[in-house]
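Example 3.2
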Amino acid sequence: MKQKISKRLEMVAQFVPQDARLVDVGSDHAYLPLFLVERGVISYAIAGEVVQGPYQSALQNVQNSDHKDCIEVRLANGLAAFEEVDQMTTITIAGMGGRLIADILEAGKDKLNQIERLILQPNNREDDVRVWLEKHGFKLVAENMIEEHGKFYEILVAEPGSQTLTAMERRFGPYLLQKVSPVFQKKWELEIDKLQHALDQIPTEHEVERNHIEEKIQHIKEVLDVSK
């Protein structure tokens, strides 16, 4: 039976190049590597897990599949899951906070020389990831956004290269800004509502705090007006 994955992971999978040698960090039961191997996109993957429970679960799923020769499950922290000798070309990190993703990349940056593509799906603080990429010789080549079960997810795809982003591009995403899709619109309209609610709770004499939130609201409104 073919591996089923969430819409979010399916969108991540769309950006994995044909015949990539994939490292999936924080592999969540090895669902993504199994999905990609079954569909003939890749023929080899390392599924990395740092916690014993998910590691055992990923191991079990791979053992129960017809692809145990194609997927190696390794118990390791972040990019410690692979070595240069493995000749990996693509890294996926999905379903973690943006700060944590940036920390994982920072801790393993010496291993990124041979990597041709990073596919990152932060659950929040996407700007932290964009800032890290910009500072460490990676440029964004694609972005996408999806809503699943009432949550919004951004997928950031980066390859080696240089790029300078504006403050607005760091926050909203250069490719997402160009498109202003209905999902993007919805996410940021809801963010305005949240910020407005927060603003309503702040006493008028707290000017600095109020100004900070008002500025954020203003930036989002400017971005959303682009599409009108």
